[in-house]
Structure formats: structure tokens, C-alpha cells
Predict the structure.
Amino acid sequence: MELLVTDYNNPDGTKLATLWPSVEKALKALTLQLKASDQAAIKGSLIFDPVGNNLAIEHALKPLGWTGSVKIHRDYQFLGKGVDFEKQGVIAEAQFSNYPFLLNNVIRSFLFSKLGVALNGNSPEALLLITKAKVFPASNSTLY
């Protein structure tokens, strides 16, 4: 995988800064997962496989101590049932779906941080958001 990293709100000194080197190494080692398209105009062409890539990311992060499928407290489940991964106050979301889900990931992570809502026993202090770039074909209406 090729990574483009953008830091917001000065993550230096956060847990994310500490955890990032091992996450970056794990993500760079991933093999891009593709699948045959079933869309009429590009039927059979290889496109980005969100399920396969999510699974690959899970297999890369769990050995590093990240907890997957972390449940959100029931008082906040109007924002979703869980976050993809958490470790030491860092939320990691792999979002390949569409822009409303991306926005939800960002807003709820910010809300959890500001309110001190514990995830996996930790108050969130940073968000690591994994998305895809528009360098290869993907399903219609997916996030770039």
C-alpha cells in the first residue's frame, strides 16, 4: 500500500504519534484487495474490494494490540453501534463507504473526545482515518 498522511490538530505528543510507526509499517505491508465488478458498464473489471481491505487492515492491526469492533455506549448508539478499532485512546476507522459515513466517523470521534465517552475503557484523544484514493476503479458512489 502507498500512504498519504495528513495530520490535523498537531498530533505530536499524542498516543497516535507513539502508535503511528507500527501502524504505518503494517499498512504499507498490506496487499491491495481487488474484486471483479458486477456493475453493467465495467462487469468483470477489477475494482477496489472494501470488505477484503477491511479484513486485511483488521489482520494487520489486531497483532499490534488494537481491539476491533469496539461497542459504543448505548446512550450514543444513535451515532452507530461501534468503532472499527481502538488502542490506548486512539480510534481507527477504515471508511470506504461514502461521505456521510466518513463525516459521521469524524464528528462522533470528536464528540466522544470532548465528552470523555470511554471506548474500550479509554477516553478518545485521536482519530486515525483510513480511506482510499482515486487511483484505481471502485464501485459507484464510494468514498475517495
The chain has one domain: 15-130. The radius of gyration is 16 Å. The CA atoms of residues 21 and 27 lie 10 Å apart.
